[in-house]
Each structure stands twice: as structure tokens, then as C-alpha cells.
Amino acid sequence: MKPSKRLRTTEDEAGGREEEEERGAVDVSIIVPMYNASCWLDECLEAILHQDFTGTTELSVFDDASTDDSRRVVEGWRERLEARGISVVISGHNSAQPRGVGYAKNKAITQSCGQYLCFQDADDVMLPQRVRLQYEASFLHPNSLIGCKVQRVPEGSTERYTRWINTLTQDQLATQVYTSHGPTVVMPTWFCSRSWYLKVGPFDEGGKGVPEDLLFFYQSLRQGGGVARVDQCLLVYRYHEKATTHSVTEETIWKLRVDFLQERVLSQWESFTIWNAGKQGRKLYRSLSPANREKVKAFCDVDENKIQKGFYTYEESEQRPKPKIPVLHYRDASSPFIVCVKLDMTEGVLEENLNSLLLKEGTDFYHFN
Predict the structure, then answer these.
(1) Helix/strand/coil percent split, the chain, to 5
(2) With the C-alpha atoms ordered 26, 31, 37, 42, is the resulting torsion angle positive or negative?
(3) d(CA 261, CA 366)
(4) Is pLDDT above 50 for 24?
(5) SS3 212
(6) Do domains 5-249 and 265-367 have the same CATH topology?
């Protein structure tokens, strides 16, 4: 059944006024920020049309100054979507430059009225059961960001990343939030209640180069939010060079991760070992606050050359004498550990070494890689 409607007058960003139907609350709003997505929209919108969810649904699209015919394509789907009971809300702006994904998401949410929000990128495709299964999961996991497994296209692109998305355990959704992969449930799969978004958000509107998804994810965890995943593939997740994620620098992500690690983990530990005496381990050490550098009791490694050297000297330190941190074989080191070795890159050797010490992830070690 379509939600009740009445006319309202709104003002768009260009200063014009237009009449718009004001809608009663619906169960789920599908949130689509859009920028020059014309070539993908037909596939994206057809998939929304064929959702098997039986509750009330709304599509809310905000066009972030597209220069192609994206908005015309969406308008072309309005009649078919509304015939299926899916309300359609479309707006946007025509500024010279786009204002960024965070801005577009916030605008799409503000103009929507769903009790739950299903985030959908315009270049991805949801499977028919996505809204239904994530809506059901939201009742089991209130105040949570709910994701799902994905199919990556083109096949074989970002193979390690895709495997990581799909194989994390429920516990690892909470423990591996410090890795370079970003949120443990990827943004294009997010589903949450409107009330939780309002408590955590809005998204950062800094624009290009700002990881608005990671900032929101960390803030959700700070607010005590949960992380959950429907263990079925519910989204075709497209990889292409124009994706906005490519505009975010590694250094930006690194700093956010270090700060969050210090806030959530290292502040609770009296001392710890950095697992990796190489480049990444040393970079982490140098990135720590002076107080947390004092807590590093050792580096550990499997490289005999590093171990035989015996220590790492922090040359940039203003202390005299300069700090010298012991370098040990991992079997001679003591927990807790911050592991700075890339996952899924050692043919299982890292994981075997960790398992041999009978360590518990989230208590005895965290991955930061």
C-alpha cells in the first residue's frame, strides 16, 4: 500500500519554489546520492523495482550537480516505480562543482521519510532480497550498521578486499575496524534506522578527499553502535576508476586509524608489542603520541636480520639518549600485540603464527595493517 500523501511547497537550492507531495512515514527509504551516474542507473533502478520487500518503500535521490542526464534517467523510472508502490523523491543542485558524497547523502536523507535507511550507490546493483533481509536483521540488531556480503565486478578486481568483506566473522566486524580496508561493513551495503543516523550523523560534508563513511563508522562505534552483516550476497559492488573512494589519500585514512586505535585500544593498555619491525611497524610507532610510544615494550618479527640487529632507534626523537626499542622473535615477545602485517598476504603464515600463541583477537591482539 502506498503511504498517504498531501501537497507541500518546498524551495530548491537555486531559490525556486515547487509543489511537492508530502508523504507519510514509510518503512524504508532507499538513499541514492548521485553524480554523473547515467550509464549505471538503469540497472540500479531496475533492481530497486524488483525488490521482494512487502513493506512500504521510498526512493530518495539527490543529484550532486551532475553534468550528464542522470536526473532525466531517474525521472524516466518514476512511473514504473510508483506503479509498484515505491514513492520517488528527486532533488539536487546545479552548482558549478559537486559538493561531495557526504552532502548528497545528508540531503537525500533529509528529504526522505523512511523509518529505516537503505544506502545504495548509483553504480551498484541490489539483489531482490536485499531490503527485506536487512530490514529483518535491523530488528535483531538495533542501533547497528547492517551490511551484507557482496559480489565484486569486474570479477577478480580487488580480490583480497572482497574476500575480507565476505569472510569476516561477527566478532571480527568489531575487532578489525582499525585495518586499512576501512569499515568492516562497506558503505554501499549499509542499512540502519533513521533514529540511529540522527544520533550519529550527519555525514561529514568536507567533499572530495574526505572519507565520510569511515568518519561516520567510527562515530557510530563511539556512540555504542553495533556492527552486523547479513551473511548472504545482497549487492553487486562495482569497481571503477571514477569511484569517489579513489580521491581519499592513504595518509588521511592512516591518521584516522591511528587516532581511533589510540583512543579505543592503546588508552586501555599499559604496554604492548608492535608485530612488525619493518616499515609499517616503525611508521605506526612514529605516529603514536609520546605517551603511547612509551608503552611500546618491543617490536617483534620473523626476519632474522631485523632480530639480530637487536633494536630500533627512534632517530627523530628529541629525547637523549634516543629511545631504542628491542626487536624480538615473535615467540619471545609478549602480548598484547598490534599486528602491522597485511592480512592474506603471507599464504597463511601470519595467521598460523598468531594461532600458535593461542591468542584471542580483540583481547591479545588487534590488526592494524
Answers:
(1) 35, 25, 35
(2) negative
(3) 9
(4) yes
(5) helix
(6) no
Q: What is the CATH number of domain 5-249?
A: 3.90.550.10
Contact 335, 273 (CB under 8 A): yes
Q: Which helix (H) or strand (E) holds 354?
A: helix 349-356
Residue where the block lists cell 552532502: 103
d(CA 344, CA 347) in angstroms, rounded, equals 7
In angstroms, the CA 236 to CA 141 distance is 23
**Contacts of residue 306, Cβ cutoff 8 Å, sequence gap at least 6:** 277, 278, 299, 327
Q: Could you write out the DSSP letters of every residue in 96-152?
A: SS---HHHHHHHHHHT--EEEEEE--TT-EE-TTHHHHHHHHHHHSTTEEEEEEEEE
pLDDT tens digits for range 27-38: 999 999 999 999
Task: Tally the residues of the chain.
Answer: 369
Work out the pLDDT band at 243, boundaries 50, 70, 90. low
| CATH dotted code for 265-367 | 3.40.50
Contact 336, 368 (CB under 8 A): no
With a cut of 70, say whether residue 22 has pLDDT above it: no
> Which DSSP string corresponds to 179-204?
STT--SS-GGG-EEEHHHHHHH----
303 has a pLDDT exceeding 60: yes
Q: For the chain, what are the domain ranges?
A: 5-249, 265-367
Q: Does 369 have pLDDT greater than 70?
A: yes
Which burial class, exposed, middle or buried, applies to 191 when counting CB atoms under 10 A from its CB (0-12, 13-18, 19+)? buried
